[in-house]
Amino acid sequence: MSDRVRVVVVDDHDVIRVGVKQSLGEGVEVVGEGRDVESAIQAIADARPAVVILDVHLPGGMGGGALDVLDVCLKKPDPPRFLALSVSDAAEDVVAVVRAGARGYVTKSISGPELTDAVKRVALGDAVFSPRLAGFVLDAFGAAAGDVAVVDEDLDKLTAREQEVMRLIARGYSYREVGEKLFISIKTVETHVSAVLRKLQLSSRHELAHWAAQRRIV
Amino acid sequence: MTSPANERLARPLRRRAPNAAWPRALVGAAMLMAAFATASARFGWPRPAAWVVPLVAYVVGLALVWSPLDLASVEDARRPEVVIGLFARDHWARVVVGIGLAFSAMWWFATWHYTDQPVVRLLMVPPALIAALALLFGPWLVRLARQVRVERSERIREFERAEIAAHLHDSVLQTLTLIRKNSGDPATVAKLARAQERDLRTYLYQDRRTAAESVATALAAAISAVEDAHAVAIEVVSVGDAPTDKHLRAAVAAAKEAATNAAKHGVAPISVYAEVSDDHYQVFVRDSGPGFNPKRIPADRLGIRESIMGRVERHGGFAAVASKRGQSTEVTISVPRRAENGKVAR
Asked: What is the DSSP-derived secondary structure letter of residue B92?
């Protein structure tokens, strides 16, 4: 990558913002910060970053936290790309923020190099799936137990390949390792992951967020 | 998630000015009636029917009994926790007078010889008296019921609040104290913080289920123990869930052993992925190196051979270790579900 990725960091905790800024490595430049919904929208409008690292739970706005920021910013022309960062493991939070338009979801326990890598990946338009997000996707699309609902739309199911990719990511494989395991190029892995992201965002299947909220297995 | 009510725990005191207008109103009403009686005698107006005076007395009594109830129920809405019996103290006199008036009216009615036929009176008097009593005490009962309801919801809220406080006390406060004591020791602080974070996260974001109900919970608990024992972070992802039967328990125990190996010999990041499908429960435990040659484990090392493979095989499953020198290691554990379950009597 020739020039540095311009990033805005949004989190309501000063400590976390400082920590994120420090852990971001080479090739990433922090050009703005936000501490709540309003200041985040302002900072994004001012700095016009390529990527926004966005905490899921934010004060202010309409009370929807990151969802409010995504709503406002994605309506404007030439929006930045969003990478959600959260301590929450709750499926409804994860799925809601991805469906609102985030290109990836990582937890705050992520290491510095991994985060830097994820930011660069999102900047290039790829999707970033943590193992946990991959797990939620598999759960939501019924890769596991007994969910054999008949589906008509392509958006409502994962292809066998996409399932395999998701499963390997959930098992902790990096994109490169997924490619090696499945004998496909890393570019192909990225294509599959982006396709899954698109399905996750566009699918109307059982209202995924709703699914996430009341996921109950007998 | 509901935010905790942001109000002070003790409600502010509120004192109401005593309302002393009613005795004067009563005296005024009595004087008006006396004046009316005098006037009717003086001008020869026809005497009112005999039942008018008792009826007026009953209505006045009713009004006296009811009015403090209204005031009190308005107050109830503001401070539902106050159990003031049925009345505040400054209402007692008014209620006693009201009941007295109503009862004398009823007594008069019960002894009223408006007809000489005892049967008619026998049929008329008891229902009328019951209706009058119900009218008099009905509001009390309604209010009593409402008070019970309010008190119960208050008790539930209080209980929840106490639960949360107890949880925070047992967990966060204790951990903070420990962290302060060990502030010189980064490893211990990190371990404490990680354990606390996990605990709080479970408390906040997850359905609280027991390890017996949910194999995902059982696996998460087992892996947490490994995290604590070896001071490493392990990411656990579970897809699907099922009650933990003995086969699944064996798989979880094997996964715990595999995670322990990864924590001891492997390099972070370590991830555990579990998937419940109709006929299998699969767990993958993966570390990022340095790898080893599984064929060259000495025969006396029981970790992999016995604790992982043997354990799972006894439950009809299998375990495999994929590793190469210098690369990641992945342990695959798989146990069958339905087929085996059918044979087990339960």
From this structure: H
A139, B240: Cβ pair inside 8 Å?
yes
Helices B21-43 and B52-78: crossing angle, nearest 10°? 160
Give the closest-approach CA distance of A189 to chain B in angstroms.
Answer: 19
How many H helices and E strands in chain B? 11, 5
pLDDT, tens only, A32-81 = 888 888 888 888 888 888 889 888 888 776 667 778 888 777 777 778 88
DSSP, residue by residue, B255-276 = HHHHHHHHHHHS-S-EEEEEEE
Task: Tell me whether residues A145 and B273 touch, CB distance under 8 A.
Answer: no
- Cα(B216)–Cα(B224) distance, rounded to whole angstroms? 12
Strand-pairing partners, residue A85, are A55, A106
What is the pTM (predicted TM-score) of this model? 0.59
Render pLDDT for B191-202 as a digit per residue (tens, 0 to 9): 888 888 877 877
Residue pair B285/B330 in contact (Cβ under 8 Å)? The answer is yes
Residue A149 pLDDT more than 70?
no
